[in-house]
Amino acid sequence: MPLLQNSATGICLDIGPGTGQWVYLFARASNPSITKIYGVEPNKAFHAELRRNAVEAGLGDKYEIIGCGAEELATKGGLEPGSVDTVITVQCLCSIPTPQKIIKELYPLLKPGGKWLVFEHVRTKYQNDFVGVLNNIWPHFLNGCDITRPTDEWLLQAGKWDDVQLGPTAGEGKYDTIPHVSGTLTKAK
């Protein structure tokens, strides 16, 4: 996922990293401009493997796990508004119980000019009946993942953006049953 390799800079907030399957993309060798990564992961059962993956990627001293959900960052995370250079959400907003609220709470943490890197499931604009039926089953097998959310629209509504480079993921067509959106939103200065 090239989006993550060279786009994250400074202080990063990695929302819902799970066991850290994407952490290698932030490896110090490929991105020396990252100064700190806060991995916000509420599932404590994932923490040991997430820590191992961060160490293997050469980020042991830069990667800190915050053991709470994104909805608790204001009280437990210790992060001040305007203190984050990069917010990263990779296939996590589809599983968070209150994504629209979380998106609005994450936006103020970004510095003016900060970037939000996105790779998320979004609802399809087509095949709504079929996807609606599929979504009755899907969340039970994939940790609550809801494939009918307009996450891209919620991100755009979170606040003012100077630049929005957000679109369908390469290789996906408009009739895909479970489409993704990927790209970067840059917070207004």
TrEMBL record:
<feature type="domain" description="Methyltransferase type 11">
    <location>
        <begin position="13"/>
        <end position="116"/>
    </location>
</feature>
<dbReference type="InterPro" id="IPR029063">
    <property type="entry name" value="SAM-dependent_MTases_sf"/>
</dbReference>
<protein>
    <recommendedName>
        <fullName>Methyltransferase type 11 domain-containing protein</fullName>
    </recommendedName>
</protein>
<dbReference type="GO" id="GO:0008757">
    <property type="term" value="F:S-adenosylmethionine-dependent methyltransferase activity"/>
</dbReference>
<dbReference type="InterPro" id="IPR013216">
    <property type="entry name" value="Methyltransf_11"/>
</dbReference>
<dbReference type="Pfam" id="PF08241">
    <property type="entry name" value="Methyltransf_11"/>
</dbReference>
<dbReference type="InterPro" id="IPR052356">
    <property type="entry name" value="Thiol_S-MT"/>
</dbReference>
